[in-house]
Amino acid sequence: MLRENISDLIALAAVAEERSFTRAAARLNISQSALSHTIKALETRLGLRLLTRTTRSVAPTIEGEDLLATLTPCFEQIEARLQALNDARDHPTGTVRIVATEYAIESLLWPKLSPALKEHPSVNVEFLMDYGFTDLADAQCDAGVRYGEQVSDGMISMRIGPDERMICIGAPDYFAEAGVPLTPQELSDHQCINLRLSTHGALYAWEFEDSDGNEIRVKVRGQTCFNTINPVLRAAIDGHGLALVPERLAIPALETGTLTTCLEEYSPYFPGFHLFYPSRQRPSSAFQVVLDALREKA
Q: Residue 180: is it exposed, middle or buried by C-beta count within 10 angstroms (0-12/13-18/19+)?
């Protein structure tokens, strides 16, 4: 019944507020005769006279006043909420929590989000650093960042970065002393810098691929082990062994000659970082700012 009457109730409120069918019709952008017919139909359905009409004015009856006393605050609340939503679109506000690796935050999320946050001072972003497959609900996060091939089913996924690859790197002095491995299997003869995954506490098995597309996984050994990637790169620069790191992370050191690569022919590209979030989630104004800022441009 509410769905049937809602437009008629809006018409009643307009006439009562304007005290005129002519002005109310103009406000509602309908004809005066159509408005009069709407009010009469409402009164007929309710079995009540809601307006007193004279040749010079229109005023609510006692029953009409009683109905409007309930309707007016509701309409005002709805109008205020709609205005707030409109303001949020023009002036986004709120907090977005994102879980991602240190590398993703520093190399991709922060460079893209920093300008957006300056443009939208009422938008807050909280970063949770984790190398595991964090459950968004358990971590109370709005979104997460993983490589494209790691995004779970049932999630909305959006590419936010280019394709990546992991490369094996080492300091020139290390290669001069220990030699250069020609195949992934030869890594067992080298000092390697390990990464311990927070997902299950295991050491990361280095992943390569041969010319036929077959996966090669190698468990390496060495003196040092970290649970984030930046110290791994630092240890390689300091000559403590070989490391497997994202190519983009190593580019500055490669360009200066501080590091060199090996086994590049075994290092394929794979889908880059994707932002993911639950399909049931409706983006807030703040989340939309994040989406727009992170979306990878073709």
A: middle
